[in-house]
Q: What sequence folds into this?
């Protein structure tokens, strides 16, 4: 009996030596480095995101409608700002083009993060209905799999709308553009998107602990992008301190934008801080990654 | 013993449960879902893993697949520690969650397989060969281009089994593979699993509530209760207990005294016009039904197979033996 | 069982159902408080720039913000109340069972939604409002009469809110997919209720129009009653008129919809 079983197996493995068998279809055995894991993760992300795109495309009309709706929804914040400026000429001492500059940076950076990781709030629901376990038996990083979950192209709406406003503000603000200032704009967008991504991941990690409390992260993600649409001068000093040093949202746009627009830095921060956004983003991502790992470890030891 | 494929040695899993005791008060206490569990499974074995709900079955499977980390003990699958090398293990195992499909709801079946092809990095030739073979064995050829949401439960289960096997796993875990399926689908799934096991030597571990799954597939059964292994051995021990009794549920037009069905059956319960009769599982129900139909105003009736809980209870706690017997621990 | 007791029991069921989601409620309180703080600062800047904008002073504007956060879930301003379940029942066909219940469909769902509203008000709405009152200067009335009028206005706002969402939910009988209407409900609800800015700040003819739409009965009217910025009788009459109009429309649409179910169901 045992002999026959082994013969059958060998046939199936097409003559591959027994010990190597498991390694044939996966990356060569042993533990792999962080770089390789990241590459695996990105690959899995694209594979799964692609499946979601194809899924939504099976309902084309619905997709077109929700895409249009998304544009309008994300435009509501901007409509509010326009309404305000229909009554006043400046807000917290900032003009409409300047506020639009903040708005465009915040909305676009947040839009990118929202497109990439915006569905991570399904994690709690997936844990509750048990479907999260099915992700853990796949040969791909769980973060990539849950990040790509429910990937939705309609989220391009916010990016589109944000970058239109940003584009208009760039030509309307009264700024003497220097190469450094021009360079800082894409740097802000990239760092801002990374900071918001870190928030989404941290929020998802929190759901390992409290599965029903997915809404808490809205306060930080949606709340964050909303508050960054207004000048720092609008907010109380303690509040600005909080979103600079505790939850470093200020580095998404407030601090670097102050440099571009030639305005005083919030909290009288030193001049070099305008360029510190990428560093802040890296630290945020690292902390969020640690939180995620801790959350996943807690889940795997409690199964709750 | 070089062919030991799954090795579970004194494994335990303790959960901390918080129970509400008042408006805001919560009490913490520990629950041992799995308690010093030890067993081994050799390559090519097909093992039924059964026990009442909450006995620790799925916790064990989750530890074997790397989803959960054990609280203690040693666990190896194909020489890999599942919780430490989850992704490496994933290439060696296939998992089918009975009530949870991993197929893509809105997309044609074949799309889910293409995803597996790429996610598991299955070489093209082997993917094509496996797909052809599996799809043929499970008669899914005509359904590959049908969106999953349009498949029946049985078709979807077969589809899930294919998805779990495309990467040639050494071991297949099945959680309730026949639950909710019609008779034909059940038969197809069982025939396929038997072939997979004998032809390809794939190790299979399945949990089930369906006694027939075990009868038709597994030469070895493990029974778990309260997180402990209560029985590990050949089917026959379980089989005898399982052969005990079936139940005939009879709905009469009105309330009547207990039915007199002669020596073939006895009434075990009466609730208004409904009565429950127990009869030997090996006997046909037909003569009994005929007799009752002839003598009583019959509205409806149904036959209940002994469920696995009853069988396990009968096996572990024989009638008349009210004290809990010591666990029948395997010594192998 | 008398009709009154039946619908009270239904409302109590709605209340209890939402009361079971403790963590979600706590998360909602936190989020509403955070958004309240952000909005308050922007409003203060706006009113700093232009005092007495829309007839409010700063304290009134602050009160308006916190009332908005308090009523956001209570009135299900962007959807997500009982109509969500109703839509799901229509979509899956389970609605056919409801039609056989010895209860009126509209009243049944209204009672459920009122129960939900009451829980959201007490469980989720009150705390952000109190936080706002502690940390920011508010303009709260001292006399019991104004508070009583406010409670009546709030009840009418609940009716109007349900009236709108019931119509939206019934549309699923014809559309079969609620995604589009849900999104439309969210947009109109947030914007025309005055969640982002009080409607009396909306300029010109546009402002004139939004102030007579039914959404104005949700947040703006109770706020103006509480802040003493409007005649109580006029405000309540405006709300009551919309409530009656919407609930009547709902009843007509319901009749058409049930006829459709009966015809389809055969």
A:
């Amino acid at each position: 009996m045992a002999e026959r079983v082994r013969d059958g197996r060998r046939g199936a493995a097409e003559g591959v030596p027994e010990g190597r068998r498991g390694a044939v279809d996966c990356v060569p055995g042993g533990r792999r480095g962080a770089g390789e894991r990241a590459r695996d993760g990105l690959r899995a992300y694209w594979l799964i995101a692609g499946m979601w795109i194809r899924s939504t495309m099976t309902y084309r009309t619905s997709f077109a409608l929700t895409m249009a709706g998304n544009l309008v929804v994300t435009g509501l914040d901007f409509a509010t700002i326009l309404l305000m400026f229909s009554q006043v000429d400046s807000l917290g001492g900032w003009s409409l083009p300047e506020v639009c500059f903040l708005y465009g940076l915040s909305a676009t950076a947040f839009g990118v993060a929202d497109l990439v990781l915006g569905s991570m709030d399904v994690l709690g629901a997936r844990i509750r209905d048990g479907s999260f376990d099915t992700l853990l038996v796949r040969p791909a990083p769980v973060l990539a799999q849950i990040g790509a979950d429910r990937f939705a192209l309609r989220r391009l709406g916010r990016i589109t709308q944000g970058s239109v406003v940003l584009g208009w503000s760039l030509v309307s603000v009264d700024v003497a553009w220097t190469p450094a200032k021009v360079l800082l704009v894409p740097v802000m967008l990239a760092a801002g998107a990374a900071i918001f991504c870190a928030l989404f991941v941290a929020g998802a990690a929190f759901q390992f602990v409290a599965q029903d409390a997915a809404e808490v992260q809205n306060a930080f993600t949606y709340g964050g992008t909303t508050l960054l649409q207004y000048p720092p001068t609008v907010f109380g000093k303690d509040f600005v301190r909080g979103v600079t040093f505790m939850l470093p949202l200020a580095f998404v746009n407030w601090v670097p934008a102050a440099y571009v627009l030639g305005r005083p830095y919030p909290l009288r921060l030193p001049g070099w801080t305008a360029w510190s956004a990428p560093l802040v983003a890296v630290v945020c991502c690292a902390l969020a990654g640690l939180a995620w790992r801790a959350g996943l470890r807690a889940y795997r030891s409690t199964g709750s | 013993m070089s062919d030991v494929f799954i090795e579970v040695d004194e494994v335990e899993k303790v959960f901390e449960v918080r129970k509400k005791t008042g408006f805001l008060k919560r009490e913490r206490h520990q629950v041992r879902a799995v308690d010093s569990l030890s067993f081994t499974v050799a390559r090519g074995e097909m093992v039924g893993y059964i026990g009442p709900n909450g006995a620790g079955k799925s916790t064990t499977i989750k530890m074997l697949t790397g989803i959960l980390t054990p609280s203690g003990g040693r666990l190896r699958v194909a020489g890999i520690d599942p919780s430490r090398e989850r992704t490496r293990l994933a290439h060696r195992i296939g998992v089918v969650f009975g009530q949870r499909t991993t197929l893509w709801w809105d997309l044609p079946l074949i799309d889910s397989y293409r995803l597996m092809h790429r996610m598991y990095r299955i070489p093209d030739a082997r993917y094509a060969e496996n797909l052809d073979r599996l799809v043929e064995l499970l008669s899914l050829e005509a359904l590959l281009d049908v969106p999953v949401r349009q498949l029946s439960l049985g078709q979807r289960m077969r589809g899930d089994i294919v998805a779990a096997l495309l990467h040639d796993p050494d071991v297949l875990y099945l959680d309730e593979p026949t639950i909710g399926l019609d008779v034909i689908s059940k038969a197809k799934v069982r025939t396929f699993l038997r072939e997979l096991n004998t032809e390809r030597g794939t190790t299979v571990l399945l949990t089930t509530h369906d006694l027939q799954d075990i009868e038709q597939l597994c030469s070895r059964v493990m029974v778990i209760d309260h997180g402990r292994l209560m029985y590990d051995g050949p089917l026959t021990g379980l089989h005898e207990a399982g052969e005990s009794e079936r139940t005939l549920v009879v709905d009469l037009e009105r309330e009547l005294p207990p039915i007199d069905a002669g020596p073939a059956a006895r009434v075990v319960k009466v609730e208004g016009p409904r009565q429950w009769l127990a009869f030997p599982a090996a006997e046909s129900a037909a003569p009994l039904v005929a007799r009752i139909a002839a003598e009583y105003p019959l509205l409806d009736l149904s036959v209940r197979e002994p469920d696995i809980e009853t069988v396990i209870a009968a096996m572990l706690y024989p009638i008349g033996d009210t004290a809990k017997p010591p666990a029948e621990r395997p010594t192998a | 069982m008398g009709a009154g007791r039946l619908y009270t029991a239904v409302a109590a069921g709605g209340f209890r159902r939402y009361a079971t989601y403790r963590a979600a409620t706590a998360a909602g309180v936190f989020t509403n408080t955070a958004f309240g703080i952000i909005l308050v600062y922007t409003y203060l800047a706006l009113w700093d720039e232009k005092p007495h904008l829309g007839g409010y002073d700063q304290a009134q504007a602050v009160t308006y913000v916190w009332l908005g956060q308090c009523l956001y879930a209570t009135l299900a301003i962007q959807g997500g109340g009982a109509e969500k379940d109703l839509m799901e029942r229509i979509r899956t066909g389970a609605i056919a069972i409801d039609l056989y219940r010895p209860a009126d469909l509209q009243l049944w769902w209204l009672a459920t939604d009122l129960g939900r509203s009451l829980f959201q008000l007490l469980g989720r709405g009150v705390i952000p409002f109190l936080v706002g009152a502690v940390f920011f200067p508010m303009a709260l009335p001292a006399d019991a009469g104004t508070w009583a009028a406010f409670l009546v206005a709030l009840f009418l706002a609940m009716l109007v809110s349900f009236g709108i969402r019931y119509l939206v939910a019934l549309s699923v009988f014809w559309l079969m997919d609620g995604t589009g209407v849900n999104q439309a409900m969210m947009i109109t609800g947030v914007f025309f209720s005055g969640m982002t800015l009080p409607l009396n700040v909306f300029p010109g003819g546009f402002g004139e129009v939004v102030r007579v739409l039914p959404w104005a009965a949700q947040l703006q009217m109770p706020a103006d009653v509480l802040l003493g910025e409007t005649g109580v009788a006029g405000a309540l009459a405006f709300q009551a008129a919309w409530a009656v109009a919407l609930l009547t429309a709902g009843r007509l649409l319901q009749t058409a919809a049930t006829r459709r179910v009966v015809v389809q169901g055969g």
Notes: Chain C has twelve helices and no strands.
